Amino acid sequence: MERFIEQNLEEYLMGSLEPGKKAEFETRLESADEYTRQTVAQFTVQSRLLRGAMRASEDVEPAPGFYGRVLQRIESQKTSAWWMGFLEPTFSRRLAFASLTLLALLGFSLYTVNQEPIVVASTPAEVMAAPAVDAMTGVDPSQGRETVLDDLAAFEE
Asked: What is the pTM for the complete model shown?
């Protein structure tokens, strides 16, 4: 592109070029190569479109309450994070109540479980006096035999 055209292109597109320079610009543009003429023509079209858009935006104003409706719509579409539910007071109270209930149930079940104390025998006499218990099942073998015999005696065809 010719230097004169390049230097005066912006003023030409804005329409603020002096009449003498404008005539010289147009004569140099006519004698320029095809690429320069097409580029200036495209710039001219774009300049007109931009000026038209700028003029139209000055006259247009949003209707009253527009910004309020936009903010209301944004707020209605806003999704909260999944962890925000943990910060609500009702959830915290319910979680504390469930934890206390679970703690009470666990304590009650530990209190009611019947566990026989482990006998630690230190002498042979204490070992012989301790009840015999199967190591795998934890049941006295003589008690298991009696239960089986009772079941067999009560069986009827």
From this structure: 0.35
